[in-house]
């Protein structure tokens, strides 16, 4: 009789084993999918990082270029202010300049 009981338990055991195998396989596939998704996310973040680094470098170069241009133009303006007759003309303090008065400030 103990053999009979053992035989009856076996089919249930086989079913449980099959369920365990299916569950493990399903879990293995899910874990692979999760790892793949995580890797893709990390790759995407790395690409975005690289792109932002390039943009940052480009913007820093542009800042240097524009700063140099601003310094140059400031010097040009400073030099021009020294010789500009309009800045030294007393007529600049008149609220409404007349064309003939303005003409007197210009070099001939």
From TrEMBL:
Keyword Secreted belongs to the record: no
Pfam family membership, one: bZIP_1
Record's protein name: Basic leucine zipper transcription factor, ATF-like 3
Keyword Zinc: no
Family label: Belongs to the bZIP family.
Limits of the BZIP domain: 17-80
Cellular component, GO annotation: nucleus
InterPro entries from the UniProt entry: AP-1 (IPR000837), bZIP (IPR004827), bZIP_sf (IPR046347)
Organism: Columba livia
Keywords attached to this entry: Activator, DNA-binding, Nucleus, Repressor, Transcription, Transcription regulation
Single GO MF annotation: DNA-binding transcription factor activity, RNA polymerase II-specific
SMART domains found in the cross-reference section: BRLZ
Domain of life of the organism encoding this protein: Eukaryota
Residue numbers spanned by region Disordered: 1-56
PANTHER family in UniProt: BASIC LEUCINE ZIPPER TRANSCRIPTIONAL FACTOR ATF-LIKE 3, FOS TRANSCRIPTION FACTOR-RELATED
Feature: compositional bias, Basic and acidic residues: 7-20, 40-49
